[in-house]
Specification:
Helices cover 7% and strands 34% of the residues. With 224 residues, it is mainly beta. It has a 6-stranded antiparallel barrel with strand order 1-2-7-6-3-8. The protein has a 4-stranded mixed sheet with strand order 9-12-11-10.
């Protein structure tokens, strides 16, 4: 079976490092889903505005590699514990398929692209191919008594973020909140030592920070 992208998503994530490990964690981050020309028929979106959230099935386009690897090392377990790939949401998968739940913020009319979808809570790299879109249905998709294995220990996980207000000079409030929340999730690879500087690109900026134990400090934010 061959599947082809129906759309791609525009986001402020220019590289993999710094992207939230799950969708919905940073609600302020938005994206725009732009459909391929053959799928720009407005009838295909008829009724979608009646749903608040959507499932996106997408391609981990920057994680393709040859061969099958049955185990992965989840960052939240320190990067040294091996877990079966099908017991994780690792981006390194046999078919490179990802699944994200995003909030539908609205529908935009574009002269060039027809109707596009504005979504929030995204965890996708800029220009990620989208294979399918399905509505989130609360009565069947929400399972309040479900067990989450090791992920339960980290669902409320955050580190403290320190910064001088000067680093956010000329940066709007929504972008400031997004940057702080991204760093709160501790994007540092689990196997890396503390007290090392890290950088990631987000929107039009390069964010530089360091982490010591459970505290991060934003060092500078440069326009790129």
């Amino acid at each position: 079976m061959e599947i082809k992208p129906i759309a791609y998503i525009k986001t402020d994530f220019k590289e993999k490092f710094g992207i939230p490990r799950q969708s919905g964690i940073v609600e302020e981050i938005k994206g725009e889903i732009i459909f391929e020309k053959q799928y720009q028929n407005p009838d295909a979106l008829r009724g979608i505005e009646e749903f608040s959230h959507l499932w996106l099935i997408f391609d981990f386009s920057k994680n393709h590699r040859e061969g099958f690897f049955p185990t992965v090392r989840p960052p939240r377990l320190g990067g040294n514990t091996h877990i079966g790939v099908f017991a994780t949401r690792s981006p390194f998968r046999p078919n490179n398929l990802g699944l994200s739940c995003v909030k539908l913020e609205g529908i935009k009319n574009s002269e060039k692209h027809g109707k596009t979808l504005i979504v929030s809570g995204v965890d996708l790299l800029d220009n990620t191919p989208i294979f399918d879109i399905k509505p989130y249905i609360p009565y069947s998709d929400c399972k309040p008594t479900a067990k989450g294995s090791f992920s339960e220990n980290f669902k409320d996980y955050k580190i403290k973020v320190l910064y001088d207000e000067k680093v956010f000079e000329n940066i709007d409030e929504i972008l400031k909140i997004s940057i702080i929340k991204l760093i709160e999730q501790n994007p540092k690879p689990a196997y890396k030592d503390d007290k090392k500087q890290y950088k990631f690109l987000f929107s039009d900026y390069e964010i530089c920070f360091e982490i010591s134990e459970d505290t991060a400090r934003i060092l500078k934010i440069d326009k790129i």
